[in-house]
């Protein structure tokens, strides 16, 4: 049976995979979740430690999606999407770093974006019309999406970014691919970019005619592949050792994917949510109220989120009983479960900078500012077994901060980033004006 997806705001609003992936958001503004999440079968657990990351990903996806996609199509789709490793780097005998930055844009967002791009291409291949993907970016997402969709047949991508609002290297990641990727440099802010994207989606006629879709981070197809690397990490530990995962968090997609892996049966000791001073969730978990608020800027800027968009998914997962036949918990009980099982810790930029220096001095290992936040939490918690911190980006993506702490030249720039400096930027200029943008689009 193909799995259906419901809205977290209305469990009776159920859609098939194609609808959930191409629409991204249900009309009632909830988030899509798979109707059934059951533990993987015994046959999986017999061999999972010997599987490649691609095969692991295929088996997890196959189990989650049911027979929505035939195996002979799904296996190569997952293998092409996840064609880079996720190694564990052991820092001490109690603590390892899961390096999620070996993809083309050097951040974990490659997992979600590459899977989504191939899935969207696959789901629309017989529609006989091109899919236009619109995305507004303040930095990393645009690069991951551009790289992921580059050369995917039947797709065209338009990326809007604020002029002067992204780093030079981030801009190069958006503007040097060409082909089916078009970069629009908007003379305005990130909010202006988002406003233009929204205007395009609100124009029903245009949206239908151009077959518009969004590549935003709450798309369910970005979450699924992020669960793979929790299995991959646990597989690399000696048998019988249950990991505690410490996840540097902003919109909480990464942590939600970990909870998903746990519901699929992966033995996990516990999860810790680590944030910068945008600490809405840690505050809540410490017994406060859940109060989204405007974000503040930090050196771990990909986690500067004041209203985490995956919170509703976390509540939904905690509401699912261990026994699938049992009733779902009420929202109040699910929130209690979450507070009981999830620890949250928040750190300042000063502490984060200190952690970057400390790990370099003790281990000659460079942590990006986001990963450093997780490192601080790992030091502060007590847990049996082994601690794994998720490293969400390569430190070279945040060179100014790294060089302030460690001195120039300590963090080598990977060839994939370095080679971009010589490629000329190609972007079209755009006024932050809805009418001008809609005319340009189509
Ligand atoms: C997006 C991002 C995060 C935050 O991940 P969420 O899934 O939004 O919690 C952390 N670090 C880096 C480098 C990121 O790009």
UniProtKB/TrEMBL annotation:
Domain Threonine synthase N-terminal residues, every copy: 4-81
Cofactors, names only: pyridoxal 5'-phosphate
InterPro entries: Ser/Thr_deHydtase_PyrdxlP-BS, Thr_synth_N, Thr_synth_N_sf, Thr_synthase-like, Threonine_Synthase, TrpB-like_PALP, TrpB-like_PALP_sf
Domain (Tryptophan synthase beta chain-like PALP): residue spans on this chain: 98-380
GO molecular function: pyridoxal phosphate binding; threonine synthase activity
Modified residues (N6-(pyridoxal phosphate)lysine): 109
GO process terms (BP): threonine biosynthetic process
PANTHER family, per the entry: THREONINE SYNTHASE FAMILY MEMBER, THREONINE SYNTHASE-LIKE 2
Family under the similarity heading: Belongs to the threonine synthase family.
Protein name per the record: Threonine synthase
Species this protein is from: Roseibacillus persicicus
């Amino acid at each position: 049976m193909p799995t259906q997806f419901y809205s977290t705001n209305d469990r009776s609003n159920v859609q098939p995979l194609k609808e959930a992936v191409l629409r991204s958001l249900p009309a009632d503004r909830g988030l899509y979740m798979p109707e059934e999440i059951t533990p993987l079968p015994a046959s999986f657990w017999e061999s999972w430690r010997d599987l490649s990351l691609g095969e692991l990903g295929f088996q997890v996806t196959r189990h989650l999606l049911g027979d929505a996609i035939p195996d002979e199509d799904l296996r190569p789709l997952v293998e092409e999407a996840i064609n880079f490793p996720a190694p564990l780097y052991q820092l001490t005998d109690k603590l390892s770093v899961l390096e999620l930055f070996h993809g083309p844009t050097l951040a974990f967002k490659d997992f979600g974006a590459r899977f989504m791009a191939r899935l969207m291409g696959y789901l629309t291949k017989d529609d006989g019309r091109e899919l236009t993907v619109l995305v507004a970016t303040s930095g990393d997402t645009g690069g991951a999406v551009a790289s992921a969709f580059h050369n995917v047949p039947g797709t065209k991508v338009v990326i809007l970014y604020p002029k002067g609002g992204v780093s030079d290297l981030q801009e190069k990641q958006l503007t040097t691919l060409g082909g089916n990727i078009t970069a629009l440099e908007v003379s305005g802010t990130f909010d202006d970019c988002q406003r233009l994207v929204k205007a395009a989606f609100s124009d029903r006629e245009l949206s239908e005619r151009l077959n518009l879709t969004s590549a935003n981070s709450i798309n369910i197809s970005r979450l699924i592949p992020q669960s793979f690397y929790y299995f991959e990490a646990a597989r690399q530990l000696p048998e019988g050792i249950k990991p505690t995962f410490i996840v540097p968090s902003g919109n909480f997609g990464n942590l939600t994917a970990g909870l998903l892996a746990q519901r699929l049966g992966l033995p996990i000791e516990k999860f810790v949510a680590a944030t910068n001073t945008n600490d809405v969730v840690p505050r809540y978990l410490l017994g406060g109220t859940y109060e989204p608020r405007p974000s503040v800027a930090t050196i771990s800027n990909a986690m500067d989120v004041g209203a985490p968009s995956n919170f509703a998914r976390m509540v939904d997962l905690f509401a699912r009983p261990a026994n699938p036949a049992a009733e779902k918990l009420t929202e109040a009980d699910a929130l209690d479960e979450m507070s009981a099982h999830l620890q949250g810790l928040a750190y300042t930029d000063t502490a984060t900078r200190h952690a970057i220096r400390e790990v370099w001095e003790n281990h000659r290992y460079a942590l990006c500012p986001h990963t450093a936040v997780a490192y601080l939490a790992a030091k502060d918690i007590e847990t049996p077994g082994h601690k794994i911190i998720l490293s969400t980006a390569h430190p070279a993506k945040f060179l100014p901060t790294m060089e302030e702490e460690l001195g120039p030249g300590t963090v080598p720039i990977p060839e994939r980033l370095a080679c971009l400096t010589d490629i000329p930027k190609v972007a079209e200029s755009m006024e932050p004006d809805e009418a001008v943008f809609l005319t340009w689009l189509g």
